Amino acid sequence: MDVCFELLSMMIEDSDPNIVGRDGSVPIMVLLIPLINKDTLQHYTHSMKVCFVNCIRILLQHGANPNCSYHHNLTPLQVLVFTVSENFTLSSDTLRQTNFDFIKNILLLLLQHGLDCNQTYQNILQAVMDMVRNVRDVSDLNRIHDLTLTLIQYGADPNIVLSNMTTGGAIYSNEIARFGDALGLTGSSSESNGAGGAGTVANSGNTNGNSSVGETAATRQSLGDTSFRNSFRTNSRYLLFYYIVLITKKDFILNDPDVTFTRIILLFYATMQHDTLYNCLKSLHNFYVAQVPSKKTEQLIAVISSLYRKPRSLKQLSRLAIYESLNRKLAQNVNKLKLPGMLKDYVLNFDK
C-alpha cells in the first residue's frame, strides 16, 4: 500500500505518467513486464495483486497511455495476452483461474481507459486463438472464450483475414494445402480426360461444333476450379477456421462430452458478418465432408454442419446490426442505447 500512496503523491504533484526511461520504458510497462514471468505471478499474494491493480488505476486516471509501447513493438495488450497463454502451462487449475482473473481485471481496466484492441502488429484475436496450443484441459477453453468475448465487446474484429506474414503454421498445414489443391487439380484432370474422350468421338463426326463445345466446357471447369481454390485459400484464413484447425490437434478437446469447444465457435457465429461467416462455414463443411469419417471429429462435424445449414435468427441479426453500427464497440456504448436492461444484456453478451 505504501507504493500506491507514494505513486498517488507523485501524480498529485503533476508527475508525468508517460515519461520514457533510459531503456525506453514507461511506468505502465515497468509494472506489466514482470508478469511475463509466470513464476513471479505465482508468488503474488492477494494484497499484492490489489496494490498492483491500484497502481495501474492511478496511472491511468492521471493520463497514462494504455496504448504505449516498449521499444516500439511490445504493448500492454500483448504482455497481458502472452501472460494468460503462459499461465495455461501451470499444473494447478485453481492457480490458473486465480491468475486469469487477476490478468483479466488489469485488461478490463486498460480497456475502460481506451486500450485499442486492434492496435498491434498481429491481430490480437489470433494470439488468443493460439492459446489453444497451451491448454491443459477443457476448462482452459472457457477462459479463452471469456477473453475472446471481452476483446470482441471492446472492438476486436472477428472478421479479420489472417495474412501469410502473421499466420502460424497450423492454418497452412500440409493437410489443408493438399486438400485445397486436390479439389481443383483432381476435378480439372478428370474433366480434361472426359473432354478429351468426347473430343475424340466428336472428331470422327462433327469436328468443329463439338470440339468448340468441349473446349468451352473445359475452360469453364478450369475457371471454376481456380475460383474454388482461391476462395478456399481465403476462407481458410478466417479466425474461425484457424481456431477449428487448432482444436483438431487436441484429442481431449474433441472428445469432451460437454463439447466445451463449441462456445468459441458459437461466439464467432454470433459476431461475424454474414458473407464472411457462411463462406467460412461452407469451406469448413466441404473440408470435413471430403475427409474419411472419423470418430474423433464426429462431434465437430455435426456442429459445423448444423451451423452451416441453420440461418441466424432475426433476433441474432438485429443484435449483429447494433454491434456493427456501434463500430463493434459495444462495451463502451451499450449504456447509451435506449433499450430495456434485459435487451442491453442480450446485445452485450453473445452467448445468449
Helix count, DSSP H or I runs of 4 or more residues? 18
Largest sheet data: none
Query: CATH first level of the domain at 1-122: which class?
Result: Mainly Alpha
Q: Helices and strands: which structural class?
A: mainly alpha
Strand % is under 5%
Task: Flag low-confidence runs.
Answer: 184-207, 215-223
| Structural Rg | 26 Å
The shape, in one word, is globular
End-to-end Cα distance: 40 Å
What's the number of extended β-strand segments? Answer: 0
Helix content: 55-70%
Notes on the protein architecture:
One of its GO terms (biological process) is intracellular signal transduction. Residues 194-216 are annotated as: Disordered. It comes from Musca domestica (House fly). This is SOCS box. Residues 200-214 have a biased composition (Low complexity). The chain has 352 residues and is mainly alpha-helical. It has a domain at 1-122: Alpha Horseshoe (Serine Threonine Protein Phosphatase 5, Tetratricopeptide repeat), CATH 1.25.40. Helix content is 64%, strand content 0%. It contains 18 helices and no strands. The protein has helices at 2-12, 27-32, 38-42, 46-61, 76-87, 93-112, 124-129, 139-153, 174-204, 207-235, 239-247, 251-254, 262-271, 274-289, 298-309, 314-325, 330-333, 341-348. Helix 1 packs parallel to helix 4 (46-61) and helix 8 runs parallel beside helix 13. The radius of gyration is 26 Å and the shape is globular. Mean pLDDT is 81; it is low at 184-207 and 215-223.
